[in-house]
């Protein structure tokens, strides 16, 4: 059974249970070094207690830990069961008539907009310009809308240029619209690449982050947002009780303070990313869009017409890619791969060489 395109990466559960073992899943962009040692220790020490009691509905200690880690006021922080839950909640709070989403970008931007019956318009990104956001597009946005942007954007990995963002923000604020910046992967780069501090002086800016990726807890799920106190309160009112479990709250409180772990992830992913760019760029059959973080967008240039055909060829090697034909603005020749540990990355590169050269 060959996996076809999915709504998201990581849908290995399409396979029968016995067939899942041994596959390398490059479709998910999770920190390859696994759990924070400090977070894991806290989880092991407290797991039974957390399973046997209700979690803190308001995530008080976790919000305090997030405030300390990111230098933001507690009152501006909302915690959710992943960034996706927060996106849907924000749209229920803001209730825009129209939502602008980059194409390509994370599919839940569009789906969260459609969940509140908002009209959706795409912001076209082009491979010819390395998927840079076109500032001129924002001269025509409608009043009281919502604009989603990724920093960095998924699937191309492009970060937002500061000067370009300033121009966009000026145009967005003129229309009394909201700018939601998805910074789900910015922790892989470092705090200097984040625009979360804009929330302190721009009421129309909201930052959303999936902590799941960097802190390696996709099975527990956790995300947060930074916004005005008013929006944070309204989001909390919309969220169901006990939506963030006690296990992930316990883990994250310690993981957020694990400075050595945080630095090790950034250094490791940067080193492996640079090596993978060199190795993959040497394969003539694919074009690599380097981006900036722990994943790459690639395009087939010859031999195979679609990423599905490439996936078929890689199946005997037990390697799974993220086929990107279902991203708006991309065709079936595009695929995305994540940075994993060195041995696994080498296994991928060697398999690609065998099937493409």
From TrEMBL:
CDD domains in the cross-refs: AAT_like (cd00609)
Recorded GO MF terms: pyridoxal phosphate binding; transaminase activity
EC id: 2.6.1.-
InterPro entries attached to this UniProt entry: Aminotransferase_I/II_large, HistidinolP_aminotransfase, NHTrfase_class1_PyrdxlP-BS, PyrdxlP-dep_Trfase, PyrdxlP-dep_Trfase_major, PyrdxlP-dep_Trfase_small
Residues of the Aminotransferase class I/classII large domain: 23-347
Keyword Lyase tagged: no
Presence of keyword Transferase: yes
Keywords, alphabetical: Aminotransferase, Pyridoxal phosphate, Transferase
Reported cofactor(s): pyridoxal 5'-phosphate
Top-tier EC class: transferase
Family of the protein in this entry: Belongs to the class-I pyridoxal-phosphate-dependent aminotransferase family.
PANTHER family: HISTIDINOL-PHOSPHATE AMINOTRANSFERASE, HISTIDINOL-PHOSPHATE AMINOTRANSFERASE 2
Protein name: Aminotransferase
Gene source species: Dialister invisus DSM 15470
């Amino acid at each position: 059974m060959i996996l076809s395109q999915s709504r998201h990466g990581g849908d290995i559960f399409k396979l029968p249970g016995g067939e899942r073992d041994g596959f390398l899943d490059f479709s998910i962009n999770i920190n390859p070094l696994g759990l924070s040692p400090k977070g894991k220790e806290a989880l092991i020490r407290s797991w039974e207690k957390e399973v046997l009691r209700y979690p803190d509905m308001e995530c008080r200690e976790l919000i305090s830990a997030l405030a300390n880690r990111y230098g933001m006021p507690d009152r501006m922080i909302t915690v959710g069961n992943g960034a996706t839950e927060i996106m849907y909640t924000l749209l229920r709070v803001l209730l825009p008539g129209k939502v602008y989403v980059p194409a390509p970008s994370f599919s839940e931007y569009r789906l969260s907009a459609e969940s509140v019956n908002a009209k959706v318009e795409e912001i076209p990104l082009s491979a010819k310009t390395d998927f840079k956001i076109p500032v001129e597009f924002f001269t025509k946005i409608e009043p009281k809308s919502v604009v989603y942007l990724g920093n960095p954007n998924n699937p191309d990995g492009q970060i937002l240029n500061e000067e370009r963002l300033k121009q966009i923000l000026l145009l967005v604020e003129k229309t009394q619209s909201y700018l939601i910046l998805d910074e789900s992967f910015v922790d892989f780069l470092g705090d200097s690449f984040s625009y979360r501090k804009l929330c302190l002086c721009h009421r129309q800016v909201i930052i959303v982050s999936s902590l799941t990726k960097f802190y390696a807890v996709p099975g527990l799920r956790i995300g947060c947002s930074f916004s005005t106190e008013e929006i944070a309160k309204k989001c909390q009112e919309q969220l169901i009780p006990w939506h963030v479990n006690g296990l992930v709250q316990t883990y994250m409180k310690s993981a957020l303070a694990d400075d050595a772990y945080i630095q090790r992830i950034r250094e490791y992913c940067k080193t492996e990313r640079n090596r993978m760019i060199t190795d993959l760029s040497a394969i003539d059959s694919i074009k690599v869009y380097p981006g900036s973080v722990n994943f790459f967008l690639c395009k087939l240039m010859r031999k195979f017409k679609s990423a599905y055909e490439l996936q078929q060829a890689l199946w005997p090697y037990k390697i799974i890619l993220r086929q990107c034909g279902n991203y708006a603005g991309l065709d079936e020749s595009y695929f995305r791969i994540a940075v994993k540990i060195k041995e696994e990355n080498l296994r991928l590169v060697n398999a690609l060489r065998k099937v493409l050269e």
